[in-house]
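Suppose you are handed a protein chain with no further information: no name, no annotation, nothing but its sequence. What can you learn? This example shows the usual starting point.
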Amino acid sequence: MPPGVVNIVHGTGADTGEYLATHPGMDGISFTGSSVVGERLATLCNGLGKEMSCEMGGKNPIIVMDDANLELAVEGALWGGFGTTGQRCTAASRLIVHTKVYDRFLDMFATAAGKISTSAKKKAPGSSSAATRQSKARSRTDGSSSRRYSRTSRPGCV
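A reasonable first move is to predict its three-dimensional structure. Written in structure tokens, the prediction is:
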């Protein structure tokens, strides 16, 4: 691919996103992030006649029906939630489990999740745990996200 065809830029929506969306050298943008920022960028792009592709505020459920292979469902749920430490736009953020298999699935999921190591002693060289990355990310915010999560998250819930 020729240089300059695809450019991936990280930054905050207010700074980086708005700059790129309004820059006269940009014909269009692709955005992954919050609905609030995406709506703002879409308004800017629309007013300038620019193309925009968005993936905003995704909540990707894994649905487990009563006839599911629970071993595979648990494996998929673990990968969906913890694979790549959940740091991708398609990471599973919720489980919807049929009531007929809920208790069995929960037991199997909790057992398997309990075996996941976040210990620095057991991880591959050069990798970091989700907890390490979340800690670094939290230090860059004003703390509002950690307050929001503490109000909505309940340990032990699936």
